[in-house]
Amino acid sequence: MRRWAVLIALMTMSGAASAGEADVVGVEIRKDGDGTYSFDVTVRHADTGWKHFANKWEVFAPDGKTVLGTRTLHHPHVDEQPFTRSQSGIRIPVGTKFVIIRAHDSVHGYGGAEKRVELAP
User: Fold this and answer.
1) Is-above-0.90 flag for pTM?
2) Which DSSP string do the residues of 1-54 spell out, in sequence order?
3) Most buried by CB count within 10 Å: which residue of 34, 72, 96, 103?
């Protein structure tokens, strides 16, 4: 009986991991009148449900560590792939030449494809 429990646990874990990492597949950016930016980010992830889904995307400064903005994704997008979500009001320091957009999922964290977006002067 114990072998079945181990087998079921392994199958469950492999199913969650099979969704892979969240990839950023597209980014549109606009500078708004108040000096902030709006981002439309398209993410692809094989969401399997509440246990494994893309749960946010973030805008990082060129150092790759400083988070400038976050768009939390509050639910799985199992039947909507890829999907695009927007966030406005993101402040980017003057003089920043580019930003990095990364998607995050509830199992792997970061690690999928990211996009580097050049900012207009």
Assistant:
1) no
2) -HHHHHHHHHHHHHHHHTT---EEEEEEEEE-TTS-EEEEEEEE----BTTB-E
3) 103
> Closest Cα to residue 117, out of 48, 41, 54, 56?
41
Burial of 69 (0-12, 13-18, 19+ CB in 10 A): buried
The residues, ordered by sequence, that sit 6+ positions from 14 with a Cβ below 8 Å of its Cβ are: none
Architecture of domain 19-118: Sandwich (2.60)
Strand-pairing partners, residue 71, are 57
Closest C-alpha among 27, 68, 20 to residue 45: 20
pLDDT tens readout for residues 79-108 = 888 999 999 999 999 999 999 999 999 888
Name the residue ranges covered by the structural domains of the chain: 19-118
pLDDT digits (tens, 9 = 90+) for 50-73: 888 888 999 999 999 999 999 999
Q: Are 99 and 39 in contact (CB under 8 A)?
A: no
